[in-house]
C-alpha cells in the first residue's frame, strides 16, 4: 500500500523540488535595445516574471517577451534595476541587475532646417554636434564705453 501511495504522490506531482538559483544575462543589441535572459537551477515547473525598479514592466519599456527562452527585450530608453523572479509551488528566488542605455543617446535637434529625432550610439554620433570652441566676439572699445555709460 505504501508503494502505491508513493507512486501516486510522484505521478500527481505533489512533491516538487525548490528553485535553487537564478542567473541573469544581458546584452546590448545593435540599435540600443537590451535583451535580458533568465535561467534557473533546480525546481520543477518554474514560472518566470520580470520587474523594473520593483514594478511591472510597461508596454513603453518592453519590446518583446520570449517565454521559450525566458528572455525579454527592452527598448532603448530603459535603464534601472531589472529583476527576474522564478517561482514554483515550493519556493521563489529572484535575481536583479542594473542595466544602462548601452551607450546610446537620443538626439532631438534641428540641423540645416531638418528635424532629427533618433537613437544613436554616443561614441559615433555625428548628428547635431555643437562646436566645442567658439571664436571670441570682439566688441569695439568705443561701443563698450558707450554701453557702460548707458548702464551707469
TrEMBL record:
Please indicate if the UniProt record lists Signal as a keyword: yes
- What lineage is on file? Eukaryota, Metazoa, Chordata, Craniata, Vertebrata
Q: Tell me what organism the protein belongs to.
A: Dissostichus mawsoni
Keywords attached to this Swiss-Prot or TrEMBL record, sorted alphabetically, are: Signal
Protein name as annotated: Ig-like domain-containing protein
Q: Which domain of life is it from?
A: Eukaryota
Q: Does the keyword Kinase apply?
A: no
Q: Which residues form the Ig-like domain?
A: 18-100
Where does the UniProt annotation place the signal sequence? 1-21
Amino acid at each position: 500500500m505504501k508503494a502505491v501511495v508513493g507512486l501516486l504522490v510522484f505521478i500527481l506531482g505533489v512533491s516538487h523540488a525548490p528553485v535553487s538559483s537564478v542567473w541573469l544575462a544581458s546584452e546590448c543589441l545593435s540599435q540600443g535595445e537590451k535583451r535580458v535572459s533568465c535561467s534557473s537551477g533546480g525546481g520543477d515547473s518554474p514560472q518566470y516574471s520580470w520587474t523594473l525598479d520593483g514594478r511591472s514592466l510597461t508596454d513603453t519599456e518592453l519590446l518583446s517577451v520570449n517565454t521559450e527562452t525566458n528572455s525579454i527585450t527592452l527598448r532603448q530608453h530603459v535603464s534601472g534595476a531589472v529583476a527576474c523572479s522564478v517561482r514554483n509551488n515550493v519556493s521563489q528566488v529572484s535575481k536583479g541587475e542594473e542595466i544602462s542605455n548601452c551607450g546610446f543617446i537620443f538626439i532631438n535637434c534641428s540641423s540645416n532646417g531638418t528635424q532629427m529625432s533618433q537613437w544613436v550610439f554616443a561614441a559615433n554620433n555625428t548628428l547635431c554636434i555643437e562646436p566645442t570652441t567658439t571664436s571670441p566676439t570682439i566688441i569695439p572699445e568705443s561701443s563698450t564705453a558707450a554701453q557702460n555709460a548707458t548702464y551707469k
